[in-house]
Amino acid sequence: xxxxxxxxxxxxxxxxxxxxxxxxxxxxxxxxxxxxxxxxxxxxxxxxxxxxxxxxxxxxxxxxxxxxxxxxxxxxxxxxxxxxxxxxxxxxxxxxxxxxxxxxxxxxxxxxxxxxxxxxxxxxxxxxxxxxxxxxxxxxxxxxxxxxxxxxxxxxxxxxxxxxxxxxxxxxxxxxxxxxxxxxxxxxxxxxxxxxxxxxxxxxxxxxxxxxxxxxxxxxxxxxxxxxxxxxxxxxxxxxxxxxxxxxxxxxxxxxxxxxxxxxxxxxxxxxxxxxxxxxxxxxxxxxxxxxxxxxxxxxxxxxxxxxxxxxxxxxxxxxxxxxxxxxxxxxxxxxxxxxxxxxxxxxxxxxxxxxxxxxxxxxxxxxxxxxxxxxxxxxxxxxxxxxxxxxxxxxxxxxxxxxxxxxxxxxxxxxxxxxxxxxxxxxxxxxxxxxxxxxxxxxxxxxxxxxxxxxxxxxxxxxxxxxxxxxxxxxxxxxxxxxxxxxxxxxxxxxxxxxxxxxxxxxxxxxxxxxxxxxxxxxxxxxxxxxxxxxxxxxxxxxxxxxxxxxxxxxxxxxxxxxxxxxxxxxxxxxxxxxxxxxxxxxxxxxxxxxxxxxxxxxxxxxxxxxxxxxxxxxxxxxxxxxxxxxxxxxxxxxxxxxxxxxxxxxxxxxxxxxxxxxxxxxxxxxxxxxxxxxxxxxxxxxxxxxxxxxxxxxxxxxxxxxxxxxxxx
Length: 715
What we know:
Strand order of the largest sheet: 19-18-21-16-15-14-1-17-20
Shape: globular
Strand content: 25-35%
Radius of gyration: 27 Å
CATH architecture of the largest domain: Alpha-Beta Barrel
Structural class: alpha+beta
Helix content: 10-25%
């Protein structure tokens, strides 16, 4: 009898951990305030990243590209974590073990083409010299990495933009912990010959060799997340911290700061181990970490514009348990990505696509859910293991775990170019986020971190008037095996159940009074290809003005040249020695426009490419999509101080995500203009930019280009 009762109580306990309590249905009041006119950050093109590894035999499964596209994956990092520092990309083997890896570089590049994701490569720093020594003639690790850049971007035109030097090199024994292969180090505890100063000096050689092959690439260096080990740690061989040492040596050579963040440690490292409430509250650390890192970057690189990329993140630093395959990890994922994006980080890369089953992590009853294993992957790899002598197996390969659906819901919430706007909640366990799309749509994401309480959330808006119809609501709820979507609730009230993520998509309503007419724009800073415009701001009787449309006026035709949220804009991509007329409209959150302002006439300065120019267009195409790298060579005798490139598509291509240039398209005509850091091109020099795009019927390459209005030869 006692044994039977124990079984019943055990089953009831498991059921209770999967199903919200009956008291959850009562509904506790909460309020969320959204200010659609207060911008927090712009969603970057490579925000939704993920890791793929050379040892992942399921990475080439037929189902994987479609699953990654459905989850909005915008960047895939390769060849993995620690395996990066022992990888010989030329023969697809592990330098230390000699083992052939499951996935080679070209297969990874094929996956990029199939998903449309940008690539990030971690080159071999730890054993790179050993890999290079196998070549004939022998090479350094830096030369071996440069060969990879050449193979990828010059020979095969894969257009991989992001490259980083090594993985977690601070784990090479410098501070006692030793998991990262690094043949620069002597044996023994706390070796003094392979710390951050040695890393920085070797990185200089890597950067020089790699950018000599392709100057358009962005090269990242390994830093530590502020407040996380080994940040702040020093020893006799490294009297300054890792970050200070590396940044003081490299300065503005840092293309992006590469940090990893796993907020919790398993109980085998720091007893008693993870908690669900602790994990879900950990993302409050993110703003402080980013502020600290930006302060260091500003101090040592001379500016605040160096991108930060979180190239690995998940919930627990090692030995994953049941939390990683449950709904809690999916809720954490939402808050993890959005915390970094709101702080201005350029990419967040989840660890990872597939990993494998782990039976020795934290699987106790204090953690939500009923799984008795863990797995870092968002997709199952169908591995099996033993628990107390009995076999346990994951579901069929490529079955999504809840974290996958968390990523999929996140991709429905944020799109590249969307504006993350201010949102605040009255309840500490109800997290709120909002984005404003270019089409006027407002999306609100509500994450309920409470395992037992349903909240009735009152939604209040400033700078946005929602339509009166029921909004579209998408919900990820326990056990986290899918997303449901339906018209539900109202724009002003939503009910959110325990441990759920709820996406509310709101269409703009109709405002009765448009904003007042903005002042006539005033021009300043006129160059050969740009002009700065400012005007007296408008007001709105229905709330804050949502933004403005700056239009170029030609007779009775108007073309939108910019859509700023404030009363100024820089119009770029103009043609030298050309007359333009500009005017401004104000618009409210419902899409209503004011009357047009007065016009201002502007004539751009003359521009030329003395001695000539050459353009090399290098595409990489797949069905429905492509990337292209464009190299501009100054073949003349005078320096270019700013450049504008124009061409016309012979097919139906459309540019989506550019890098190293501001790219606009009108019909088949495309204009690309330099950014602040790459406008100067010396005589005999060159610069590059690129973009991702789509096509349907014809992706033929353009055959004619102009730079600053002058026709160029095409290479």
